[in-house]
Specification:
It is a single chain. The chain is 31% helix and 19% strand. The chain is of the alpha/beta class. A hairpin with a 4-residue loop joins β3 and β4. The protein is globular and about 55 Å long. The two termini are 28 Å apart.
Length: 291
């Protein structure tokens, strides 16, 4: 995990330009892998923009397919005081000690947890039914212990244990048959009230409305703390598209992922990928510009 590789964000950004003086009303919703984090789970290339966000009071909200247990170390190391959104928008976590959400919640550790998706045990039950119906060889995280997840994903053992602490969402890979019809799987999943999110190495199965609805909930909560003048959403893959659509300013990270069918008002695309692209975009949005 990135938390084992990076220090707490710090630094002295350049003088704040006049165009950035009203930035305290900006909220940035950010995906992690391929966006704020690179392939080594490092955010080093984004440190100048993160430091500027801290200086200006710009709120950064992490939104990911990762579990809360995976996200918490990064949230602490970035010294954030904001909610986080886990497992493709199924879990929304508001810091306890700040105002409670206006929807049903449960106190979990240091958070007020709002579940927008069905509990993991129910999703796993239907995942296994779906596997039986299809007759395919499908391997889910629920079939593995932490060592098995580490072997399958390449994660370090501690990171694999955090990835196994799932609350809503089941990642899986299709072992066979070759060329399995994901369209059929989507239809069968929908009939069970589940959503299939397609990925590269892993697909995800969960219920709930997605990242976009979670973003809207967090924005409503933040407005209870102060003005929200502009929302920015940053992601790199199709499971981020509903989050991008929910923001005032959507940003697609990485020129290698053009997605020509994606059409959103005001969409920006970065030439650079990962945290370098994140850094480039945020500095430009805040009026400082990238060197």
């Amino acid at each position: 995990m990135a938390g084992a590789r990076e220090r707490r964000v710090e630094g002295r950004p350049a003088a704040v330009p006049a165009s950035a003086r009203q930035s305290s009303g900006i909220v940035i919703f950010s995906d992690l892998d391929g966006t704020l984090l690179d392939a080594d789970y490092s955010w080093r290339a984004a440190r100048p923009a993160l430091a500027l966000c801290r200086r200006l009071g710009v709120k950064v909200v992490l939104v990911s397919s990762k579990t809360r247990a995976e996200m918490e170390p990064l949230h602490r190391r970035l010294d954030l005081r904001t909610p986080l959104v886990s497992e493709n928008g199924c879990g929304v976590f508001f810091p306890a000690g700040l105002p409670k959400p206006s929807v049903p919640y449960r106190r979990v550790d240091a958070w007020w947890r709002v579940g927008l998706g069905r509990p993991y045990r129910e999703v796993v039950h239907d995942f296994r039914r779906l596997r039986h119906i299809l007759g395919w060889q499908i391997l889910g995280f629920s079939d593995l212990n932490a060592n098995g997840i580490a072997a399958l994903t390449g994660l370090a053992p501690a990171a694999a244990r955090r990835a196994a602490r799932r609350e809503f969402d089941e990642p899986f890979t299709i072992v066979g048959p070759p060329g399995a019809d994901l369209g059929r799987m989507e239809r069968e999943a929908k009939a069970m009230g589940l959503v299939l999110r397609r990925g590269g190495s892993f697909h995800h199965l969960h219920s709930g409305p997605g990242k976009g609805a979670a973003v809207e909930m967090v924005v409503s909560w933040l407005r209870g703390l102060g003005p929200v003048r502009r929302t920015v959403a940053m992601g790199d893959a199709p499971n981020d598209f509903d989050m991008l659509a929910a923001a005032d300013l959507p940003v697609l990270i990485g020129s290698g992922r053009r997605y020509p069918g994606l059409s959103l008002p005001g969409l920006r695309r970065t030439a650079l990928e990962g945290p370098a692209g994140w850094n480039q975009a945020v500095l430009e949005i805040l009026g400082q510009g990238a060197d």
